[in-house]
Structure formats: structure tokens, C-alpha cells
Amino acid sequence: MLNEHEMKYMVRALDLAAIARGRTSPNPMVGAVVVKDGEVIGEGYHPRAGDPHAEVFALAAAGEAARNADLYVTLEPCCHYGRTPPCSKKILGAGIRRTVVATLDPNPLVAGKGVAELRAAGVMVEVGLRGDEARRLNEAFFTYMTKRRPFVTSKWAMTLDGKTACASGDSRWVSGVISRKWVHELRDEVDAIMVGIGTVLTDDPELTTRLPEKNDSRDPIRIIVDSHLRTPPEARLFKSGSKSPTWIACLDSIEFTKSPLHSIPNVQILPLSSKEGRVDLDALLSTLWKRKINHVLLEGGGTLNYTAFSQQIIDKVYCLIAPKIVGGAQALSPVGGDGLSKMSNAWNIDVQQVVWLGEDMLVKGYPIYSK
Q1: What pTM did the predictor assign?
Q2: How far apart (Å, rounded) are the C-alpha atoms in residues 100 and 197?
Q3: Which of the residues 55, 76, 117, 299 is marked catalytic?
């Protein structure tokens, strides 16, 4: 039976998995630890898609000593041939006597089959140790697999009176230096960053990751929701020097091949169906899923945020609150649109954490949608 003493091994495995945050997509982050006679004899994590999985590194580190040892792994070992051989075969070949799995894999190719294969071969398997933490670590992967769309995180910064900009349109800067650095760290972890045409026209952003102290930082794919292709060809995001592509989602009724955007290098136009006269975000997410986009960071303005909440596609919220007051009846708020008519219909947020980033407060939570 599992006991509190064993928690430290799974905690270590979870810590190892998190090292590769933002680098494994569309694969999950996984960590593994091999233990024998109360001592860690091997450990590893999955560094990126296409590389060996965590179990392979951990078993290789343990070597022959892995025979009759215990394996702690944050996700059910795979049992199918993909870009790498199945880990279940590696575990059996190494002679592991017992495997402790944090959570089952939602991938239909695995989904309990890996555990069943190990048990059928005589390996003791226990499932559930730190399972909630393991699923939270890979919440984007679980959504990608179960909902067949990317996980969407909405992030915004606002003043204490709920404004994302002054009535004049000036928004530099709502949040402080530490918060802005955190935002770039967040961008470094996601597959794509999404904004609406309003943000492009108002802020003219580059949508890049700026972490000069991190050698392997990378830019996410830039996605512009632009129903009528109003993005200026001279926009800064086309001149940022980023090697990351830009995808522009527009209505499929638009003759996009005649747009000057069509000829800009590293730009792809995605014609999609409409919903209430705008790009259908469900159709967009379906397209992104087919392109193996696992996690999207939504940094849109009030219009796009309202549409996203209305279509119930926002999975997680990061709200930065700066200790500033700007006022202004016409000043923008993070969620605009028509708004809801009754407070009883409000989208509630299950707040999980509140932390300080310098002088700013960061609220992390998950929207609760009515069925």
C-alpha cells in the first residue's frame, strides 16, 4: 500500500517533469524515479517531443540495479509505438517489480492499457499517488486529449478600478516590471499566443518572448483573430525578427488571396466559419488542435475575451491587478462585449492562488461554466 513516506519520490518525479515545462508539446511533461531499498538509483524526465521518455532515462541511469526496484512515474507508461518505442516494454525488460503511477494517460492509445500490460506481466502497479498534482501539471495535455482542442489560458493586467487602459488608449504600463517579466516567462511556456485585431490596431504588439537571460527562450506562434483582414502589413509583429510564424484567422467569406497579408513571409491565413459575424472560436480551436497546438495564451482585448467566455473556451485565468486608479467611463476593461444582464449569470472563477509579483497582485483561477 502507498504511504506518506513514498510521497517524496513522487514529488521528486513531479519536480523533474516540470523542468521541461513548455518544451514537450504536444507530448505531456513526465518525470520518473527508480528506487531500491529506500534509495534513489535513477531518475529522468521527458525533455521534448521525439526524445526518449522519462522512464527510459531513469532506467538507463539505474542500469542493472533496476531489477526488482520500484519505479515512480507521474503519468501512465505508454504501451504503443510512436516516435519512440513503448515504455511498458522498457519497464518489463528492466525487471522492475513495482510501478507507482500518479495518473492514467488520457491518450486513447494508452488510457489504462499501459497499466494493464504491466499487471498482466506480473508487475505490481498502484495508481493515484499525487494524481491531482500530476493532472494539474499536464492540464493542457489532458484538455488537448479529452476535448480535442487546445487548453486556453486568458491573461490580462488591469488597474485596481478594473481598467486595462486609460480612456485615451494609453496602456503602458498597467503592471510593473516584475509582472511583465513573468508574462514573458509565461509566453515561453505556451505553444501559441492569441490576440484580436483590436489589440493589433491599438497596441501594435510584437507578441514575442523577451528573456535575454534565458538561452533557450522561444517565441510562441502568433495568432491574430481578424475576421475581415484589417491587420496592417506594416504591423510590428511582422518586423520583430521572430522566426515564429503568424497565423491570421479570418472569415471564410473573405477573398484572402487578394490581401497583401497573403504574401508576407511566414504568415498563414486561416479562413474559418463565422459565428455572429465573427470568426467562430470553436472552429479556430479545432484547427489549432489539428495542427498539434496544445496550449494557447489569450492576451486579447475586451471584445475577444468576452467572445471567448461566451463560447466557454477559456480554461484558466491569470488576472494581474496593479495598485493604480485611472478612472474614465470610456476606459477599457478586460472583458467587454454586450455583457451579461444578470449578476446571477456571471462566470464565476474558482480561485486557486493569489500571489504578489512585486507591487502587483496575481489571481490564478479556473472559470466555472453552467451546463
Answers
A1: 0.93
A2: 48
A3: 55
Please give the grid coordinates belonging to residue 237: 509583429
Compute φ and ψ for 59, nearest 5 degrees: -70, -35
Q: Which helix (H) or strand (E) holds 302?
A: helix 302-310
Do 257 and 210 meet the contact criterion of CB atoms below 8 Å apart?
A: no
> Nearest Cα to 297, choosing from 205, 363, 218, 223?
223
Which residues contact residue 243 at a Cβ distance below 8 angstroms, ignoring those fewer than 6 apart?
A: 219, 266
Residue 240: its pLDDT value, please? Answer: 85
What is the C-alpha to C-alpha distance for residues 337 and 134, in angstroms, rounded to an integer?
36
Residue 1: what pLDDT?
58
The residue ranges of the chain whose pLDDT is under 50 are none
Pairing between strand 295-298 and 192-196? parallel
pLDDT attached to residue 371: 66
Residue 274, SS3? strand
- Burial per residue of 230-265, b for 16 or more beta-carbon CB atoms within 10 angstroms, e otherwise: ebeeebebbebebebebbbbbbeebebeebebeebe
Q: What is the pLDDT of residues 58-86, one digit of tens each?
A: 999 999 999 999 999 999 999 988 777 89
| Rounded Cα gap, residues 234 and 123, in angstroms | 61
How many secondary structure helices (H) and strands (E) does the chain include? 10, 16
Please, is 40 exposed, middle or buried when counting C-beta atoms within 10 Å of its C-beta (0-12, 13-18, 19+)? middle
* SS3 category, 255: coil
Q: What is the pLDDT at residue 81?
A: 81
| Segment holding 56, helix H or strand E | helix 54-62
CB 198 within 8 A of CB 205: no
Q: Beta-carbon neighbour count of residue 38 at 10 Å?
A: 8
Q: Is 55 a catalytic residue?
A: yes
pLDDT, mean over the chain:
94
Contacts of 334 by beta carbon, 8 Å cutoff, 6+ apart: 156, 158, 162, 164, 302, 305, 319
